[in-house]
Amino acid sequence: MSGNTSKPIEFLHVAVRRSFEKATSSNTPQGVRDNLDILLRKLGQIRALEDRASPRRIGVFGPPNRGKSTLLNELLGAAILTTSPIPMTRTVIEAHRADLSSLNSEWQVEVIHDDDFINTFNHNTPEEVAATIQQYGSHRSGGAEVRRIIVRSPFNKSKLMERNGILIDTPGAEVAFEDLEQDHSEDTRRAVGMLKDVHVVLFCVRADQIGSESERAFYQDHMRLLDPFNIVNFKDTNSDDVAVIRDTVKHYGFKRDRIYLVSSRDAQKAKSTEEKDASGLPRLEEAIVQELARLTPRDGLLCCTEEFVSVLENQVFAGIDVLPEQIHLKKVLNTAYRSAGLISEPTERRLENVLERLRRFVR
Amino acid sequence: MGLVTIPRQQSILFIGPPRAGKTVFFSTMVDRLIRQSMQDGTPLNCVPEGRHSHQFVQGVIKSLERQVWPKEGGATDADGKLVYSLTHKGVLYDTKYQLSCLDYAGETFNAAFGDPDLLESEVDDEQVEELKKQVNAANVVFIVVDAVRLHDGASAEIESSLFGVVEVLKKLKIWTALVLTQKDEFEGEDYEEVVRQLKDLYPSFFAALKEMRAPTHWISSVKAVTDNQGRRVPPKNYKTESDSIALLEPVVWALSLPDSCKDADGSKGTTQ
Hints:
The complex is a heterodimer of chains A (about 375) and B (about 270).
Chain A: H1 2-25, H2 30-52, E1 56-61, H3 68-76, E2 92-97, E3 107-113, E4 118-123, H4 126-137, E5 146-153, H5 159-162, E6 165-169, H6 174-178, H7 185-195, E7 200-206, H8 213-223, E8 229-233, H9 241-252, E9 259-261, H10 264-269, H11 273-278, H12 281-293, H13 297-318, H14 326-340, H15 345-359
Parallel strand pairs in A: 1-6, 1-7, 2-5, 7-8, 8-9
Antiparallel strand pairs in A: 2-6, 3-4, 3-5
Chain B: E1 4-5, E2 10-15, H1 22-37, E3 44-48, H2 51-65, H3 70-73, E4 81-89, E5 93-102, H4 107-113, H5 125-137, E6 140-146, H6 147-153, H7 156-172, E7 175-181, H8 191-201, H9 203-211, E8 216-218, E9 225-226, E10 232-233, H10 249-255
Parallel strand pairs in B: 1-5, 2-5, 2-6, 6-7, 7-8
Antiparallel strand pairs in B: 3-4, 4-5, 9-10
């Protein structure tokens, strides 16, 4: 199936690129350019994933003390990251799903050093994993010499890991948030470099600490065009959800439909499904699962075409011209129609509907 | 080799509106001709006239091999005329052709042949005069046009200049052909239907071409591929032989024209 849907995705990528080039060479509003830029990145990821059939990488990003480790532990379904109020890791930590049959024990930790030397540890409990990460990922224990730590396990309790995800904790740029006066470009560059290969970006801030200028600048400079999930953690500290959303939109410039209010510590303490739901974590998890599905050619074609058609429809109202050449639109239409019959019925109807909207732009 | 070489040069000129792909088409075509010249038994021999032409074309080809369009790689910085000589080895005599591509700013074309009221940018008057002079002296003229832009609905400025140049060529009775580029972008489409659409979009231009019995050659200098950013770029390790479409079709047509029409003694195009 992927072979049959690859062409429309490629043609859509070309059409969006042509629109983006048209937008950048004219006086098109920044918002339109950003939307096209985000769409280009998504299409590039879908095509690359299709070629390599590699796992989807989910990266968590944000300043220290935003509850990232607790959040990650909840998403992984195992407490392998130390939830300390003192920032300790500067090393990238990746969680990979592995069959038990391929491991010597339930938990395998690979510590990769800068000189490519690898220490492998076999553990039986998450606590042992956490201790190893703390030992090798910490500043104080010479963590700067460790490039990466990979934890392999079946991760049977994690929906995201079940879907071939790789969860990545990307510390290291914390200092970039601390003091804008100092040059932290190396840390920032390293952290942003990590994000280039991440398919789904989770950006964490706190509900009770909205307003940091360095956070805002970092979001605008490095996060905005990655279209992250904007996670406002510690929602339990503020009872007015509407006000929190309004403040984050106003202060950071978050996209309203990408804001998720969660309380990772409530999720950690939850004893019932209702309590878990109230923490906001299941909703976030479901949204990430849907985002992972969009990275396939089949669902990606539908979602990206819908977003592109919205841009084209909006440009008509805004009186701007970002329409790509006719032949590029025709090729999307012709090939996408051919692939429509290959996909499930409700999705097919949605695709046909959006293609009809796209057809209005073709002579 | 023939017994004699006809000393008179037959001038074949390549012109067209801005960003039509003239430079890439000319460069890839002569590269293909040169490589073909080296094969045993071929009746054609193509060589650059002067170091500038050689270096310029080499720069374009090297750029394409690096998957970079020449403009991005800065290969089109040089100015002046690209000239290659093409010798056709006949049984009785050899005929020498001069292939020329004027490396003028594309807007010059619109200024020379279009409606002055539609001009969108300033142009160099000397370049305009030089272009008109070259057209006047040519035996065969290829009008190179980007099929993607034409199909999309070219600007009024380009449309006006395309019609204008055909009018001039008709009066001068010069053999003319239309070269559409970027055929690869229409892969999977019904080519004949696309041409019908073009005729429908530009009826006066195509009617004038028909009156002159000017054929349309649809080529691709480079069969582009889509990179990971969604850009159409030359394929990896680009080769003119395998990664182009119908590249030599226009020049082969020019070589097949009756001798009387290729005469450079001032009595051009009498049999048209």
